[in-house]
Amino acid sequence: MKPLRVLITGAAGHVGSSLVYRVAAGDLFGLQQPVILHLYDIDKMLPELQGEMMELGDCAFPLLKDVVVTTEIDEAFGDVDVAFLVGAFPRKKGMERRDLLEANGQIFPAQGKALNDYSNPDVRVVVVGNPANTNCLIAAKNAPDLNPSQFTALTRLDHNRGVGMLALKLDAYVSDITKFTIWGNHSGTQFPDISHALLKGKPINDMVDFDWYKDEFIPAVQQRGSEILRVRGMSSTVSAAICTIKHFKSWYYGTNDNDWVSKAVYSTGNSYGIADDLYYSFPVTCDSEFEYTVVDGLEINEFCEKMMKISEQELIAERDVIRHLL
Ligand code: NAX
């Protein structure tokens, strides 16, 4: 079987390095498909990448055919079939969201161009580095020969956080919960929506108090990343890597019948009145042909519509800040 090439940018960082070992172990494509890992980071992280490569060798992963360690963008993006864009400029104390957008705006045009020029034309891209939705838009716009539907951004971690919290509240298994949605931006404006969510086929809306949902659950999901940072002094790492894999696998293998997942995908002509030309998190189903479909036509009540719009407006404002990079 021909090995598939998987690029991880920011591979020396916390999320990137957690991802590296999982991909090498076969977590993405199952236990038959060999992979070649492309580990990319900035120059000063080269020793970290080299150490990572040595450790990968020591694990003797049966499916790991080769490892390319590089700080050169053309080599990193060359012929890759899958690209996880994790590397990004971290938010520092006192930095406004606008500054972060600008700083990361310098990274993603070049990576979009590299995907366009050097990668497999059928490449699939998952953007994890924050602000993920808008970075994804920048990368996609700088890859004019690729289809915007080849690009997605990660909101699966938010999705799984919400499902996990619902399972705790309802004393249920996460596998019994379906049709939960994260709408919008991977940020504090994201909207965790239970209006279509089911527990063993029964509406969760009927099982929880609206005040708990509005005043406790929604903020808890929205602020989970900050809360983890506050508690352990470090942001999510392993959960982010695992959810990145889950995001990819649902795209590659397809979603379960009678369920959907949340992914930030290119908005174009949806039934919810969300502006076009954004990467917005929707409920999506995927078939096993590596395609996704936004679940359209769900009934949206007034509360949900208001929440969905707040996140849409934030994404529009982010797009305005980086418009010169598109
Ligand atoms: P780290 O600071 O540990 O790692 C970031 C890595 O990116 C570093 O190794 C750094 O050298 C590298 N990097 C910086 N500029 C680069 C460039 N131009 N090209 C390639 N690599 C570059 O951060 P980590 O905790 O790993 O988080 C990585 C990103 O994921 C951050 O932007 C973070 O905010 C974001 N997250 C997004 C999540 C999501 O759900 N969408 C959740 C997890 C995570 O917080």
Helix content: 40-55%
**Order of H and E elements:** EHEHEHEHHEHEHEEEEEHHHEEEH
Share in β-strands? 15-25%
Q: Quick one: how many beta strands?
A: 14
Reported for the largest beta sheet, the result is: 6 strands, parallel
Strand order of the biggest β-sheet: 3-2-1-4-5-6
Using the alpha-carbon principal axes, give the shape. globular
Radius of gyration: 19 Å
The rounded distance between the terminal residues' Cα atoms is: 38 Å
Oligomeric composition of the shown chains? single chain
The average pLDDT score comes to: 95
Named once each, the bound ligands are: ligand NAX
Structural class assignment:
alpha/beta
What's a quick, concise take on this entry?
By secondary structure, the chain is of the alpha/beta class.
Note the main attributes of this structure.
326 residues; alpha/beta; 6-stranded parallel β-sheet; 3-stranded antiparallel β-sheet; 18% strand; globular; binds ligand NAX
Task: Please render the helix and strand layout as text.
Blueprint: E1 4-9, H1 14-24, E2 35-40, H2 46-59, E3 64-70, H3 73-77, E4 82-85, H4 97-105, H5 108-118, E5 124-127, H6 132-141, E6 151-153, H7 156-170, E7 177-178, E8 181-183, E9 191-193, E10 198-199, E11 202-203, H8 210-222, H9 224-232, H10 238-253, E12 261-266, E13 279-286, E14 292-294, H11 302-321
Parallel strand pairs: 1-2, 1-4, 2-3, 4-5, 5-6
Antiparallel strand pairs: 7-10, 8-9, 10-11, 12-13, 13-14
Helix pairs in contact: 1-10, 5-6, 7-8
Bound molecules: ligand NAX.
Ligand NAX binds next to helix 1.
